[in-house]
Amino acid sequence: MRCPAAAEGIYGGRLCRVAVVGAGVIGLSTAVCIAESIPSCAVTVLAEHFTPDTTSDVAAGILLPHPFPETPLHKQRCWFKDTFDHLLSICNSTDAAEAGVFLLSGWQVFQETPSTKDPYWSTVVLGFHMMTDAELQRFPKYKFGQSFTTIKCECSKYLLWLEKRLKNAGGQLHTEKITGFEQLTSSYDIIVNCSGLGSRDLADDQSLYPVRGQILRVHAPWLKHFIRDGNGHTYIFPGIHSVTLGGTRQKHNWEMSVDEADSSGIFERCCELEPSLKKSQVCSKLVGLRPTRNSLRLEREFFVHGNRQVPIIHNYGHGGGGISIHWGTALEATQLVKESINWRNPTSKL
Amino acid sequence: MGAWLSLLSFSYKVGPWWDCEMSFGSLSPLRYMRVAVIGAGVIGLSSALCIHDRYHSKVTPLSIDVYADRFTPLTTSDGAAGLWQPYLYDNGNTQETKWNKETFDYLLSLINSPDSIKMGIFTQSGYNLFTEPMPEPSWKDIVLGFRHLTPQEMKMFPDYRCGWFNTALMIEGKSYLPWLMDRLNERGVKFHQKKIVSFRELADRRVDVILNCTGVRAGELQPDPLLKPGRGQILKVDAPWLKHFIITHNPKTGVYSTPYIIPGSRSVTVGGIFQVGNWSEDNNSEDHRKVWEEGCCLVPSLKNARIMDDWTGLRPVRSSVRLDNETLQFGDKQCEVIHNYGHGGYGLTIHWGCALEAANLFGKILEKKRLTTHSRL
Fold first, then answer.
1. Is CATH 3.10.580.10 the classification given to domain A4-344?
2. CA distances from A148 to A3, A116, A302 (A)
3. Is A227 strand, coil or helix?
4. Which residues of B touch A108 (CB under 8 A)?
5. Nearest-CA distance from A96 to chain B in Å?
6. Closest partner residue to B117 among A95, A238, A279, by Cβ?
7. Cα separation of B74 and A119, whole Å?
8. Cα angle at B145 between B140 and B150, to 5 degrees?
9. Which of A38, A56, A281, A333 is most deeply buried (CB count within 10 A of its CB)?
10. What distance in Å separates residue A78's CA from the closest CA in chain B?
11. What is the pLDDT of residues B89-145, one digit of tens each?
12. Sign of the C-alpha dihedral, residues B345, B348, B353, B355?
């Protein structure tokens, strides 16, 4: 097994060509991670959609983990913590405004006391504690609540900032819809699949399904806190220039157009939580399909095409928690890429 | 704001301000009261509203006129960031803590009301930071969710050793003052753009009660060696990604002399100037530089924010709020004066409790004059 420093031996003196499929938060962060930490790689991002047309652009971008029923809890916590810590250092730097990353405090409230009062991520976010009775008085229908400070990562800015970081690290971006991995095997040595819901076709993964989310963006600059109903169906997430109101969680629903009944439902539920919203103006309505799977797929597979065996690192199925764990999964995918550089194609001659 | 300026110029065109009194001349002095409020900042307007609402049915007619040289948006209250937060310790002045609490509870009760946004009221959480451990503040049980910062949180502020987090309220003068003026206008209160130069001026016009809410310039009406200007200069910055207030403290240099950042509904206020004795209302470039550099040190992301404006205001600093009444004699005329000034850097924070107390003092004056409806002749 050759050591990493001798990569030039495997690739005949040239850089290892890595193709990252997908330009949402997963694709771009993974590409940046690879380009910045593995100098012997030449990274190209290939995608049909770039910001502002990705699923990530619709997401509010609040760091609050989404549960993966079949992924071990310690992994979920590790990915979340890596992402939180990474974004926290951006929050407190001069890059924060350009990156669209900032601290946000608020409350998660429950009509019924949850079974887990202290979830695994409570020690990752800042200042987590139970709401006092005085704090709960503003939410008369709710019995229990958690108060904490987390981070909001606005993808409309963050993805542009990641694209800039990628180019600074020598990476490239191409608009191209990849319908099969065989399109890439002759030009690339390693493929990283961050195609989200697209993996249903691209990786032939029928266990992946959409959970449709609709949101409203309203103008309400006096709102400085997030409020989320613990059942996940109603949430208010103030952003830089607008407030995201949500939402819906419609499994197996592929409908991308705005549903007016959903819009009214969202607005009413949010106004109940925060009455001042009645005075807000709706700026836009958007739909995103969360790429959902029982467990996140983060692993290496070998794709055989002709006489070539190309490693594919899959990094998809983040559901409603993509932004919350993106950096953690990017780090893990990068590690798999590092290990794959050492892997020798059994057909190559030395 | 524009509507109010045109209203004032209209009343000015009507004629000399004392002419409107002629129609009241025929009423018996026991059947009505004329109240003059001097000052149209948050103190003057809220006191007027409180007194009107409590006594307009007990004294008919209760005529209230507000006189001021400056109206919103040109008052001290308009420039203030609007964060509800008293100074850290009341030093035994529990009455002020009570007034602060009454104000907080009152504003909190309005937070879910339909008018909250028009009034400029909303919640905001944030940080108070210290270089050495400090006793907990007098207001810790008034605000919501008061707690000490965790070591993880303190890492975000490497120049500070410890601090607190809590949820407080914002009450923005630029919205609140026009709202107060609308309420007063609905109640028939009249406004006059005029600088009152003596209490006698009003006594001569048969004003029964004067509410002296003249803030930092109260000394011009009656010398008060305890009242001094606490000059402040702030920057208004466009940084909408900032969602928390951050107030730093240095017990050696005094309150608001070290950087603070308070996001509002339209801009972020960056400050850290408190110069006692300085009457200059001009913006100073050295102060601007200090505020900007120290603010960027505290919050690095500010470096890329656009500065929209500078503003200088004079906090009406006094060892304690003056809220009492005095009977003044001018020849054969007697006039009651309720003083309500000297609220320093916490006028918005304490205004409602003081307005309630001013109304209490007004009630005592009424009792003295025995002016209730069942004792009318």
1. no
2. 45, 16, 43
3. strand
4. none
5. 6
6. A279
7. 50
8. 95
9. A56
10. 17
11. 999 999 999 999 999 999 999 999 999 999 999 999 999 999 999 999 999 999 999
12. positive
